[in-house]
Inverse folding.
């Protein structure tokens, strides 16, 4: 259980500053995820536009809520 959230946030912030971005490692991770998706049959999409209407409706609702709450 975390007792001091501020200390944890400070620790995480310092840790992130120290870590260097390894772009090649990031590319390897993305490539592995893509290969796994292909193996599972997720990619290539059978119908890339399937569900697009729902995504558009969700985006409209999210965008309207963020404008109202400002």
């Amino acid at each position: 259980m975390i007792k001091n959230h501020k200390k944890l946030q400070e620790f995480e912030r310092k840790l992130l500053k120290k870590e260097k971005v390894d772009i090649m490692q990031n590319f390897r991770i993305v490539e592995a995820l893509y290969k796994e998706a292909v193996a599972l049959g997720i990619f290539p999409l059978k119908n890339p536009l399937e569900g697009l209407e729902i995504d558009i409706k969700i985006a409209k609702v999210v965008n309207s809520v963020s404008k109202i709450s400002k």
